[in-house]
Request: fold
Amino acid sequence: MKRKLKTIDCFFQRDNPRATPIENPNLTNVQDSDPINLHTEAAELNQQETLATTFERDPGKRVQILMLPFDQQDEARRFYISEGPYQVILDEYPLNDASHARRFQSNWFKQFSWLEYSPHTDRAYCLPCFLFSKKPIGKYGLDTFTVKGFNNWKKVNEGKECAFLKHMGNSGSAHNYSVGCFNNLKNSMTHIDKVMVKENEKLVAEARLRLTTTINSIRWLTFQGCPFRGHDESQNSLNQGALQIIVKFDFVFILLMMEKIMKITDVLCQTLQKKSIDILNALDSVSNTKVLLGNLRNDGWDPVLQEVC
Ligand SMILES: [Zn+2]
Reply:
């Protein structure tokens, strides 16, 4: 008698929670069904029949947000917002089974940014309503763009009677409420990302400045043969180590100020050292230097402070 060969897989359980089906005894796998020949009623139940992963993007296959475990709902909303509406462009969409058969048009995506299309069910859905509408209460038409999907293409672009426009409704409609929630969460996600990036860049710049300053100070002390540590390095000590002193704010500030002042007065010093200089040129140099030092005193503090900080 032959023994059944065991593979290594049978000793391990799947550990990817996203690949695990929702624990619902009503769900069965019908992914192999032909999407075009689905009966209308069967298609309406397709959401319940389809074995969907948690973050499936196809709106005809994905699980309703409210059916997800509570701690995954917010994560799912952020995922779908970051991915955007599922707008699949096909060369030719399937004809529906109406008496005058029509098909979905890809240019509707341009007119209605919220619109999604499922190649699996050949139906249209609304992303903001899917993410933020309340639990369906069974009232006719309310869950068309979230659960059942819409495929009555004849009703699209019928002027005021256009099904997409009717779904959007007026400013206080459920759809516009969902769009508001969608935009708020999208903006907050973008805002948080930007703040995080900016804050990280600031932290990196500060760390880099501290490191460069310390390295330069160590190099300077080494070349001068100065000791790094002093006799007493406590905060109020008058005999702190040289390394402690030269990385302090006031030390760096005074050095920078001295450098700027010496750059300004350098021209005057060189002029005065020339014996052939006439008194008018010397007076011009004194006057120019005075103006430049005045400018530094009036407007030059901020750049120096920024450089030190
Ligand atoms: Zn909607």
In short: The longest strand covers residues 115-118. Confidence is low (pLDDT under 50) at residues 16-52.
